[in-house]
Design goal:
Layout: H1 4-11, H2 14-19, H3 26-36, H4 67-79, E1 95-102, H5 116-134, E2 139-146, E3 149-157, H6 160-168, H7 181-192, E4 200-207, H8 218-227, E5 230-236, H9 242-251, E6 259-261, H10 265-273, E7 294-295, E8 299-307, E9 314-320, E10 327-328, E11 333-334, E12 341-342, H11 345-352, E13 362-363, H12 397-400, E14 412-413, E15 420-421, H13 423-433, H14 437-441
Parallel strand pairs: 1-2, 1-4, 4-5, 5-6, 7-12
Antiparallel strand pairs: 2-3, 8-9, 9-10, 11-12, 13-14, 14-15
Helix pairs in contact: 5-6, 5-10, 7-8
Length: 468
């Protein structure tokens, strides 16, 4: 009896045999294309043939080590968050946000280490700290989803310590039941309904499941969110859900960028921390400027303890309300007696940086690196310029090039003061102080010229931007 494999091959034509052969391109690919003829379309590449492997980016140096590549990867990771759009836009710096955490049974999965539940609790604490660092005059509340119900974790307040303690209390508990999008959105809508009109109303949700146990029609809840001008952002831990995308699109004026699905632990952290930046004001009604009365109290130290108006606890110090002289423990806060918003001037200054962000610094090529030997801010020495790159370039091509990644010379230049900085000072200037050390050390000009000052987008003379 003849071999069955041989009979099967004999029955096929030459083109059919070539179509089932897997090639890697090059000579074999060219031969197969010649067999098919010029009139027949080429076979598409398989998806696995274009895979990008991380070890292909590792390049050995002249000494045989990979330390240069490792330093470059670390530097690229530090600047990854800095390379964002710094166009000055009107934003609501007074925010009221509800953080929704999924506490259902789907959070016990271990695709995110150690588990979705434990990682979410840790990231939620970091989110609270970062949120109040970036938005000191805003308020936050935390809600959970468990057993098809909405569970209140912490009330709307401006004290980050209360939220962190409440979130830490969730660690010994076990996830159970199913999530309910409608119940949690209705609770968040009820809390945000009484917030003032000059602030933003936002909901940031962490959803681990692919289903929702709702008691009614969720589309009615979506329409109510749009009517109340509440924006919803969702971070999915499993896959994209159609109803979640619909919620985000309808509540964000057709923009779906607030909905993301995590790929790994680092991506999860990045998606969650994006919500710490105030949202852009889109509607004309929200763009209308309004006056808000605030008080700037001074700290006092008492010889004898007295009750505070916010917690009714005995303390020896605090802040006196500038209107009714009631004592509060910490700032920012709202006076429990007269309702006046009490803040410090530093809180308002930290919120102002979102309206006029510090512009991205540009990479300095080797040809222009000879003019600096150390960082202008921390005096850290830069790598020596190679001999074949010591000739300076002519023109402004490198200066006008937008920031795209790491600098080969480890130097980054402010486009205003033209000073060179290291990557650590670049991160520190953009994420902590939000000011350029070189521009701050320059003497004040006799007459302020229109344009960008202190490396910040926008100027004090411009009136297009108003603080809500």
């Amino acid at each position: 009896m003849a071999d069955s494999d041989g009979e099967y091959v004999d029955d096929l034509t030459e083109d059919e045999i070539n179509a089932h052969q897997v090639t890697r391109g090059g000579i074999s690919g060219a031969k197969s294309s010649r067999r098919r003829g010029a009139g027949q379309p080429a076979q598409p590449k398989a998806r696995w043939e274009d895979i990008q492997r991380s070890w292909d980016n590792v390049v050995e140096g002249a000494d045989g080590s990979i330390s240069g590549t490792v330093v470059g990867l670390l530097e690229a990771g530090k600047r990854k968050r800095l390379l964002k759009d710094t166009t000055p836009l009107q934003r609501g710096i007074i925010r009221h946000l509800m953080l929704v955490l999924d506490l259902s049974l789907c959070m016990v999965e271990k695709d995110l280490q150690p588990t979705r539940y434990l990682l979410t609790i840790r990231y939620a604490q970091e989110f609270v700290t970062e949120f109040f660092e970036q938005n000191p005059i805003s308020q936050l509340g935390v809600i959970g989803m468990r057993d098809g119900l909405a569970v209140r974790i912490s009330d709307m307040t401006g004290n980050p310590t209360d939220h962190i303690i409440a979130i830490q209390a969730l660690r010994p508990q076990e996830p159970k039941g199913l999530p309910s999008l409608q119940n949690v959105l209705e609770m968040a809508r009820g809390v945000l309904f009484h917030t003032p009109s000059h602030s933003t109303r936002e909901v940031v949700m962490v959803l681990g499941g692919l289903s929702s146990s709702d008691p009614g029609d969720i589309h009615q809840t979506i329409n109510a969110l749009v009517t109340d001008k509440i924006r919803v952002g969702i971070v999915g831990l499993a896959a994209q859900v159609a109803v979640c995308r619909e919620i985000v699109v309808k509540t964000n004026d057709g923009d779906d960028s607030a909905y993301g699905v995590v790929l790994n632990e680092g991506h999860y952290h990045d998606l969650l921390m994006e919500a710490t930046t105030p949202p852009v004001t889109r509607s004309e009604q929200q763009s209308t400027s309004s006056l808000l009365m605030m008080g700037f109290p001074s700290r006092i130290v008492e010889d004898n303890a007295s009750l505070c108006a916010c917690h009714s606890k005995l303390t020896r110090g605090g802040y006196l309300c500038s209107r009714c002289t009631a004592k509060v423990c910490s700032l920012p806060a709202e006076c429990a007696a007269c309702g006046l918003t009490l803040i410090l001037s530093t809180h308002l200054a930290r919120s102002y940086q979102h309206l006029f962000p510090l512009r991205n610094w540009v990479e300095v090529p080797w040809q222009r690196a000879a003019r600096s030997a150390c960082c202008f801010a921390c005096q850290t020495r830069f790598p020596d310029v190679p001999r074949d790159h010591q000739r300076p370039t002519t023109g402004q091509e490198a200066l006008n090039k937008p920031a795209s990644g790491t600098s080969p010379s480890s130097r980054y230049e402010c486009t205003v003061c033209k000073n060179h900085f290291c990557v650590d000072c670049d991160v520190w200037s953009h994420e902590v102080v939000h000011n350029c050390p070189g521009c701050q050390s320059m003497p004040p000009p006799e007459a302020s010229a229109p344009g960008h000052s202190n490396g910040v987008n926008g100027s004090e003379q411009e009136t297009a931007m108003d603080i809500d």
